[in-house]
Amino acid sequence: MSHPSSRGDPLRLGSTPVLARWTTTLDGDLAPDVTGGPSPQRRRAVLDRPWSWLRQVHGDQVRVVSHAGECTGLAGDALVSGDSLGCLAVFSADCPTVALASPEGVMGAVHAGWRGLMEGVVQAAAKTMRGLGATDIRAALGPCIGPECYQFSSRELDQVVTRFGSSVRARTESGEAALDLGEMVRLATVAAGAELIHADSPCTACSSDYFSHRARADQGRQALVVWRPVTA
Fold it and tell me: What does the pLDDT read at residue 39?
């Protein structure tokens, strides 16, 4: 089954009321800039709502969005909210992004680079969601660089294996040491007590549908946007 991003379709996270959409290069560069965030025109074309987005720092800080557009430009790597009027957005050009949702409508968007995963960013986001009333949390993984393309230093790989186990150790197509980020996310969702309902993640390095810093030195970023539709 193809990833919803390849069709431009939003994904409903299981039985929750929350939707998630991963953009592609066809949507243009959504990277925040120093003058005020992603292009307003491109934002509106993806989803015409106030966006909350962060200055991502590859850590485990979670920001709680209480009203539409709050927290924009603050440092952090995860947003959670129970608000139904805005949307949550994180950006990537190879790192995994993870959408989280519960049946109560509590939602999260996580930028889950390997350093943030090591610090427990997925678990921190799930814990914060539970503090807002979330019960059964569903998770979905977006496009990220695959292990076949992600050569990784042996020293840092050993550190990750010590924390996550040997299943994250991989090899590139040429036989070099590599890290399996998708497996890291899977293990992090298990540790967070969340159910990973969508793990079919296209490789950003292999596909020109996505920006890739590692493979093509792209400066652009795709977005994960998470929101709850307003019901009448």
Answer: 83
Asked whether 69 and 51 are in contact (CB, 8 A), the reply is: yes
5 lies in some domain:
no
Model confidence, pTM = 0.95
- The enclosing domain of 115 has a CATH number of 3.60.140.10
List strand residue ranges (DSSP E) for the chain, in order.
11-12, 19-22, 51-55, 62-65, 74-75, 78-81, 87-92, 97-101, 107-111, 138-141, 169-171, 177-179, 195-198, 222-227
CA distances, 224 to each of 149, 157, 211 (Å): 22, 27, 13
Is residue 168 a contact partner of residue 183, using CB atoms and an 8 Å limit? Answer: yes
- Residue 100's domain comprises 10-227
Strand partners, 52: 88
Rg of the chain (C-alpha set): 16
Cβ(69)–Cβ(227) under 8 Å? Answer: no
> Whose CA is closest to 91, among 201, 229, 220?
220
pLDDT in tens, 144-175: 999 999 999 999 999 999 999 999 999 999 99
